[in-house]
Predict the structure.
Amino acid sequence: MVSKRRLPTSEDKESLTEDASKARKQPLSKKTKKSHVHNEVEENDSVFVKLLKTSGITLKTGESQNQLAVDQIVFQKKLFQTLRKHPSYPKIVEEFVSGLESYIEDQDSFRNCLLSCERLQDEEASMGTSYCKSLIKLLLGIDILQPAIIKILFEKLPEFLFKNVNSDGLNMPRLIINQLKWLDRVVDSKDLTTKIMQLISIAPVYLQHDFVTSLPEILGDSQHADVGKELSDLLTENTLLTVPILDVLSSLRLEPKLLTKVRQLVMGKLSSVTLDDLPMIIKFILHSITATDALEVISELRENLDLQHCILPSWLQASQSKLKNKGQTSSSGNQNSGQDCVILLFDVIKSAVRYEKIVSEAWIKAIENTTSVSEHKILDLAMLFIIYSTNTQTKKYIERVLRNKIRSGCFEEQLLQSTFHIHHVVLKDICPSILSLAQSLLHSLDQSIILFGSLVYKYAFIFFDTYCQQEVIGALVTHICSGNEAEVDTALDVLLELVVLNPSAMRLNAVFVKGILDYLDNMSPQQIRKLFYILSTLAFSKQHEASSHIQDDMHLVIRKQLSSTMFKYKLIGIIGAVTMAGIIAADRSRSSSLTPGRGDLSSEQCTQVTSLLQLVHSCSEQSPQASALYYDEFANLIQGRKLAPKVLEWAGQTIFNDFQDAFVVDICVVPEGDYPFPVKALYGLEDYDSCDGIAINLLPLLFSQDFVKDGGRLTSQESDQKLVSPLCLAPYFRLLRLCVDRQHNGNLEEIDGLLDCPIFLTDLEPGERLESMSVKERSFICSLIFLALNWFREVVNAFCRQTLPEMKVKVLTRLKHIVELQQLLEKHLAVTPDYVPPLANFDLEASEVTPHTSTAVSAKIRIQGNLGGRKRKADGSKTSSPDPLSKEDNSECDPGPSDRSPLEKEFRGKEEKTSVSLQNYHAFFRELDLEVFSILHCGLVAKFILDTEMHTEATEVVQLQPPELLFLLEDLAQKLENMLTPSVTRRFPFLKSKGNRNIGFSHLHQRSASEIAHSVVQLLSPMCNHLENIHNYFQCLTAKNHGVVDGPGIKGQEYHIMSSCYQRLLQILHGLFAWNGFFQPENTNLLYSALEVLTNRLKPGEPDQALEELLSQSFHYLQNFHLSIPSFQCALYLIRLLMVILEKSTAPTQNKGKIASLARQFLCRVWPSGEKEKSGIPNDQLEALLSIYLEHTDGVLKAIEEIAGVGVPELITSPKEASSSSFPTLTRHTFVIFFRVMMAELEKTVKGLQAGTAADSERIHEEKLLYWNMAVRDFSILINLIKVFDSRPVLHVCLKYGRLFVEAFLKQCMPLLDFSFRKHREDVLSLLETFQLNTRLLHHLCGHSKIHQDTKLTRHVPLLKKTLELLVCRVKAMLILNNCREAFWLGNLKNRDLQGEEIISQNSQESTADENEDDTSSQVSKSKGTEDSGEDEASDGEKEQESDESDDD
């Protein structure tokens, strides 16, 4: 039996020659003593010795090698022939074997027979190979001798199994087994297999390992199956042989079933194997995978392979022993061996995923199929990284899987950190591909994916070596210089974090970060702050010589930018200088408490800070805008960081004196001058004596700036007299109060006089004189009001946290003044159309806000705002403006005041406008701090409650009034919308809204979203108080009006303000709970706190409730407010708020029905309407609420049938301006919205219905058929409505969704009809009859569209006709399938209009558009006399072909 064998490897050759080489070396040491022994030849008269000598081998005694005189092949041939031709054959063979057996009884002789022979060569043959086989090996090559010799060897072998290695270093069992390797032919392979397996079962462990690994080199292919079975059995008995057995099984040709059995066996042992054995086991598993079972095997491997528990113990043990024995090296050796095993393991995996496509794809699929967050392992992330680096074809697939996992919350920061911590040795080698993956994640639009990409960069820097750290910094710098706003922000945040976590490593890479200074032009102020903070921290945190070059470069850049005349560059210099000063002057007393004397700022550092700030002051004093920016930046620095006491003291003295000199005057000294208006001290809160007290010198300063210096606005300065711009008043005061606050730990007694002091203004109430004012005077008054407003805003910012009652009263009064001034401002702006206000936020370019505000009074802006949902409609309330409704409500509810008519005539060249929205001027108001909203803790008192309950005590002045409440709520709603609502638009630099969206929120953006959310959660309790008070207000009002919608008080200003407050409160709650940050683990407690506040309003005093219970109680609490909802906008916000609460629940089914019920109530409710609009319900909001109702209701089809079958007929029979009695929100104006939503939801519902299969049960078939009957009936009702409502939008909806419905019918319903036709023939025919009438109407609609040549409609016609053709063919196929082909017939379908009138006249031009409609139709044919009956459908096919042929134009 001849079988193919693999060539011996180098290792095999080494093992064969190892013992022989040792035997050659050994006699050299004894040569002097036994030299005569070496030359002795075995003299024996036995047949064995003689035949060998005849054939060419001379046996030697002692330790000498046997000598081979001829070539090995020649020897074997000679001996074989001698034996065969011997007269006593086959007896001679037995004698020969018996002689061999006698000869090898001597151990030395046996050893010589096992060692290679010595070849006697002549001169010519000396260049050939010197290696010769052993005598036994040569004899095994002779077939007639092989079985007997194998038997002898296996009989001799047990003698040596338990003996130690010989003195000459030879291992006899190994030497004997080596004789059996690589035989050219095995005579009785089955017997050999049996013998060797028996030997393995009795051998000691160390020899078992050798014997098992030798099996592939000994056995023939025919024995692989038997050996495989025996080895698999042995695997279950002896776990110590797992690795060698698996190694052998990988080399054998085995049946797939056996491999699967072994693989399953091994898979079960994965959790208990040692780390050293793991690479071989994983290699076997991965190499035994086939395409059919790849996913199953990899999924099981994922579950069973827990590397975290395998790797961590060995590393922890090594690290602990290393700490204990620092001088010893054993621990590091253990650690290195553990790491080597891990590297080897991942090398095996890398090899498998690189060269086996099925392995890589199956591994990704296994990870993708894992849905539970807890089931994801560290290995998953590591494998995605590895496959990403080794297999370029799967990169897009991996990115998609990774993005989906991040979005669903399966891959969190803790998992990523653990992955890098445990596998950093392996991941370090694929660093470039990991950074490439992080780069692609940062290009995403999803904030959670961007965050994950930034974390990859962060942990790569922390856990990798210096080279990789350099690559990480290089990648981050590339992102920063890319110009993409989101990338720049994220990369800077990562650098900021790394500077804190690992400053020493960051200093090594500071030169790369410093290069960003060349790309400052395209950075926002907030990004510039971050960059200079990073560089300043690297340059000044420790005085290293290496960091001095960064200091020099920063000083150069700052001085260069400060000296620029362009504000854009001066802004960079100011921000950079103040940030750098903050780092130098940081208070180190706490951090350096262990080293006394180093905490304080040195005099040199103090001088450095003061000189830097004085430089900024001197460079910016020429420009009021630059000065104001400097004051704001310095204020932010004081507010955000702990400054050294020396610097605070210096700043406090300087600022206090300068502010007093610039803006504060004695009240008794009335300014004198040629002012256009009389100067009065207004808005004082105290009654001063004639010469006591102070005032803010506002009007004179503004006059000096605007009137004295023509054209010198914002930059004026006399050569002999320095003028202070009133533009700096609010920023300077902010700086002053923060400085005093920090110096005196929140005590503002030094400056509390500024809270109640008056301002030098003039009469601001517009009267008769408004008509006679020039444009310049009007602009002056507007500027005056803007500056006064911003002053009061900063005053409220400053004193809002004061606890004394009299201070609270004054703050509330200032808040009232703000509301009053805003009402006055609206009146003045209405008659000053092209006015541009003075800036209030300075970390921006003037061009960013000027264009928008210059057209703020135009009607277009108002309309755009309404469409975007940012402001209220005709009821007069706005949605996100920071000002209260005030006069705008009155002006929209009743005709304009009589005194405006002359003004309208004066500005007849302008657009007529009675009021403006201050929303458009948001950028020109000072930002309110989050602390201001602590005022919400004050109660709410409305006039209506005061009138009924007679609360007229003096304490009422401390209460928060509705206009002031609305002002605060609108500002808070804006802040939440900006910070907590994700916006895609602000991510793209090329969108115009990008810059505008963040103007006026610079202080807010210095806090994180979680800090904002935390602050709002603190305000939840007072906001719930206000919500309940407003709820009671509307409940009382409804009771008083006996439920009449348009009763007394509905049109009043207070009603509208309270309604707006209601809407704002619901909007704020929605913005908070819709924040996606609640899904992050670190914010879970915050969500609990928020829900507990709502739950405690319903059931106080029940701590430690489960999340589901909290969600349920919160839902119930908020649901109770539906009875008092005053407007449709409030209703929509309440529904959305309930939906957001519902999303966080794991069992939302019950409450889902409540949302549908609530939405239906709101749709069936009569809402108060505005004066200027026929309906008080915005179209987009009505569409949103109707969609919510149909999405959440249990029976979508029943709901659609109710609206279309009950509500619409009521509308048709009602008067023109009336509405449906069942659905008051359904009017002739809103019908198109109802129609569009119903058609869209109907199509969406049937599209989501799974197509039935023949294998389904009869009951399922009946249910699906019934469902489709209802769907087609609904479709029929909706389609037929176009005969009554034939407006263009309705027809467009019908064409678009009609085609989609027919497509869904083809894909989902026709397969069901195929196998339901025989059993439910009548039902199927009825369904098709109804549907045929609908498709015929769609056909008529196509004709109507072409007759009217409406391009918006006709573009849908070709696709619709194609779908109708497919339907005909599909119905015909269904009938043929059911043996009813004869029931299908065709007829001509005439072109008709919507009313069913035939389209007759077609001239040559019209024929092009109309001939396509001469399509064929089918009708139902019921064969009464036959067993089968069928139906045929509208066929657009045949006639369409004819008309197309003649339609060649």
Observations:
- Residues 49 and 1333 are 109 Å apart (CA to CA).
